[in-house]
Structures are given as C-alpha cells and as structure tokens.
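WARN no homologs supplied; continuing
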Amino acid sequence: MGKYKFYIADAFTEEIFGGNTAGIVVLEPGDDFPLKEKMIKLAAELKYSETVFILPGLEKDSWDFHARYFTPTDEVALCGHATIAGMYVLSKIGMINEGVYKLKTGAETIDIQVDGSRVIMGMATPENIDTIDEPRTISELYSIMGLTVPNPSSIGRLKPMLISTGLPDIMLPVSGKKELDIINPNMKRLSEFSERWNSVGVHAFTTEFAKENNSEIKAFCRNFAPLYGIDEEAATGTSNGALAYYLHLNGLLGSDGTLKVIQGEAMHRPSSIDVFLSADPISQDIVTVRVGGSAVILAEGKVYL
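OK structure emitted
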C-alpha cells in the first residue's frame, strides 16, 4: 500500500466552492502509478468528475510530469480542469516555479504555462471529427436534451459537430441563454447517443451575447457526460477548447481569437474559462488552442492506496 500527497482544488475560479472541483494525487519521482482499479475506486469514492494522478519525471524523461485522469467510472485521456487544478497545486507546494512545463497525458504531451495563480494549458491538436447533419438525428439529439430544434436563423444555421482537442465532444448550438438554462437531458438516452457517436458527451452553448468582433467572443455553456458518470460538469477545459475550434471552423472566431466562457451557473458553481486560438497565417489548417484559468486549494492531506 502506498501513501501519497492528496489535494482537493477548485479550477477556473478564484473562490472556494466555485468552478469545478478535482482530486489531485501527487506521486514522488520514481514512483509507479497505483493499480488502475485503485485509481478508479478513489475517483468513485471522491465523486468528483475527475481525479488526476501526477507523477514527476526523472532526468532521463522527455517530460516534466505525467498525468493520468479518472472519472468515477473509467480513465480518460485528458481533463482540462484537473490539469489546471493539478498544476496550480504543484506551484503552491513549491514543486514548480513560474515557467513552461511539459505534461505527458493520454492524448499527447502538452505545454503548461504557470504564471502566478494562473495556469494556461496547451490542448491536443484540434480535430473536426464529424458533423451531425441528418435531420432525424438532429431532432433526436435536441429531444434528448429536452429541447426543440431551434429555428436555423436563431443559431446562424450552425450544426452539431463532433470536435476534439483531447477528448471528443458534441458541440450543440442553442438559440439563447433561456434555452440553455432549461436543458434537462434524458441521461440514459444521452449516454446511448454519446456511445453511438464515440463522444464523451454534449457541450451545449450559446453565443447570444457575443461581441461582433470575431477576435473576441463570449459564450455561455453547459456540459453533460453521463456515459462517464458525469451528469453535468461546472467547467470543462477540453470541451471549451473544442468549442473555440468549432467557432473558428464556422467563421465566428478569428485566426487569433479569444473565447471567454461562462459555465456552471446552472450548478451554482460559476466558472470563468479563457480559451486562446491561433491559426497559422499561411496554412489556416494548422491551429493551436490553449485554455487558461485560476484555481484555489480547498483541502490537503494523505491518501493510502
């Protein structure tokens, strides 16, 4: 049985009990990760949407830290809010200083910039996986979410799309904040739909209050992933990275654009997430996405696994 440093931190907020909470387990250099079954059981015991285990690298490694992420039911390749929370914890306990670090994840190795209480993480290479454009399937999806299919003019003829910046999510445009607030998914049907589309879940959004200048957009979002034991999540880094890419693909966010996301209001855990998108000026197909925010530590101690 191993004994590890353990923390609980809220990400994408500067106040405790805001944002999205993650469990963080910090291993020592040269340690092995605990058995996968034990890491899943700890995540299930904590009941947070994700718990991250962070292993410091050795001198021979090409990365500074290796992170593995667990929902209450399974391991996932990458998690934005747990990364923000985890790297914030490392900075506060003196394991890292301000600077840029390489973090090995199940998606790919990404750069993490630490600047005081603010952490900005690189996303995995954006992928446009699929578009849901068959009318019957669109109607099914909105019905599952407890909505009617919006008038095309109210959402700029946007279509649901499966996008990934580390984890695949279905981007779901809704006509406004009122529609966003009344979403009430059938979780069983949503799990089945997500499994059918190889998606973690659905990221519903509205840009009803977006600025006209497409170099900066404000969006309100809600995220649902019952397939992975998460009915709703208060802040999602990878999903909002995917949303920035979606908005870019649809001409709503410029080549060097900033997306400000407000999420978690329906859960009474408001979160503020900044997303930065940059497209290569020569080849617009080469796009990088970064997600940033603050965090705060709620508790610390030891865990025995």
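The mean pLDDT is 93.
OK
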